[in-house]
Amino acid sequence: MNIYPLLRPLLFNLDPETAHEVTLKLLKAAHQSGLGKLILTDMSDKPVTVMGLDFKNPVGLAAGMDKNGDYIEALSGLGFGFLEIGTVTPRPQPGNPKPRLFRLPEHQAIINRMGFNNLGLDHLLSQVKDSHYSGILGINIGKNFDTPIEQAVDDYLIGLRKAYSLASYITLNVSSPNTKNLRQLQQGDELKGLISTLKEEQLKLEREHGFYVPLALKIAPDLNDDEISHIGRLLLEFSIDGVIATNTTIARERIADHPFANEAGGLSGAPVKEAATQVVRGLAAECQGKIPIIAAGGILSAEDAQEKLSAGASLVQVYSGLIYKGPQLIADIVNAL
User: Fold this and answer.
1) pLDDT in tens, 8-30
2) Which residue is catalytic, options 76, 131, 175, 176?
3) For the chain, where are the E strands, in sequence order?
4) Which tens digit of pLDDT belongs to each residue from 277-314?
């Protein structure tokens, strides 16, 4: 039963950040009471193996919805093939001042400048340990806002080491526009230094733990062809296991007429669809199928998801689409594949 169209007007009357919190709490309550089945639509398993992991279907939850791992079981009940939680930083931090989340319904879009607000890595990992979720779980790691960019690798090393034993895969978020200077980690020698260090640590952790946890890189849609090619070559050089394309955009051309167009932050939803698909296509050409691509950005229908897969992605992730379409979106995509 798809009750989201009834709930959406009520939620959209709330402040966006309040609505986010209320929605997750309602979902958790529904899951715990057994009522979660009321919002599920039947869908078949569509198994796929990517990064050496077996996914029950190719549709995942993008990072950002559950930053602290507080709602893993409730979200898993929606039918996702995998979940990605975070972005989490080594130490707790409050994020940017409010308001920091804006809806643009006319454009089926969201602007956020949350700033990696989270309760810290130790809290997230304790939630993962307490969860009974047995599916594929990605943990998305970032740096604290007050860690100098020159020392960013230290924060990523902390995240990698601590999360390694509990994650199905780990994502390096170097592409949020809401942490000062973070995106420069995508550039040239800085990216090479970061991923070479983390790849070396990943292989060391594999020896210590006796199992291999894949490493993915999450990149921005605001990259030119040369930058995409450079990133693709580095992914191949260091045998990074996957790439998530893409994060939110700082571009505003597609919402230039909107009152929120000048709000700082990352734009997600329908306006980022084309740019994200272009990055997927560019990476696919550069990597020639050797590096799996997880596509995110502007997926609001089964057709949007198919477009990403046709461009070269192996998996897709949704977030803003859920806000506008509800959990029915997951079933629509899976059943259309």
Assistant:
1) 999 999 999 999 999 999 999 98
2) 176
3) 48-50, 53-55, 59-61, 82-88, 101-104, 109-112, 136-141, 169-173, 215-219, 242-245, 266-269, 293-296, 315-318
4) 999 999 999 999 999 999 999 999 999 999 999 999 99
Tens digits of residue pLDDT in 119-130? 999 999 999 999
Show the tokens assigned to 185.
């980690």
The position carrying tokens 């329908």 is 270
The residue written with tokens 């992605």 in the block is 313
CA distance from start to end of the chain: 21
Cα separation, 57 vs 50, whole angstroms = 11
Domains of the chain by start residue, with CATH: 41-336 (3.20.20.70)
Q: Identify the DSSP state of 3.
A: -
Nearest C-alpha neighbor of 189 from the set 242, 244, 245, 237: 237
Name the burial class of residue 208, with classes exposed (0-12), middle (13-18) and buried (19+) by CB atoms within 10 angstroms of its CB. exposed
pTM over 0.85: yes
CA-CA distances (angstroms) from residue 137 to 28, 134, 225, 249, 337? Answer: 18, 8, 31, 25, 22
CA pair distance 54, 248, nearest whole angstrom: 27
Chain position carrying tokens 């890189």? 217
Q: Is 176 a catalytic residue?
A: yes
